Amino acid sequence: MKFLLGFLLTIVCMFASETDTVVVFEKLIITSSKSEKSLQDLKMYCLENRTIRTLQKKHHFRLLLEKFGEERILVIKPIKSRDVRNTLLILLSSKFENIFYLKYEEKVLHKSVVKNNIEIKKSSWITIIELQWLALFLLSIIGLILSIYSRKNIAKLGESQVNLKQEQKKIETDIDILGNDDDL
Description:
Helix content is 57%, strand content 21%. By secondary structure, it is of the alpha+beta class. Strands 1, 2, 3, 4 and 5 form a 5-stranded antiparallel sheet that branches. The chain starts with a helix and ends with a helix.
């Protein structure tokens, strides 16, 4: 029994290790800005605007030039919530004409918490749901084995009870025989 529990603990530890995850974020793209000067203008605008500055401190998004094919475009990423995205769209659309958002995937080496409708996909073949089914399967096997073990013990108790009753009857008959011998 101890061997079985040790084996199951080993299996659970193997599958419980952290796996790489792919997290879906959003990024704002400003297509009208393609140069370092545009990036510096955006950074200055964000520093001057108190709302954008506080959002950037709180949500840690970056302003950068990203290569897209042969072009470079101005990108604000990662945006982790719709509220931040919509606020940035409203605040930046007055300064930049062509601004839109896209979803993109980014690999994360540790488990992330799902907040504000961020989708998390496991890059491994085993997901949380599969782990739950595996745990249920292992628990059912353990329950089955324990049930069989307890049934065998109950059967042994039944046999020993029958044996005790037989021995009790034998002892009672021996006592009756001894009692009858004393009467003579």
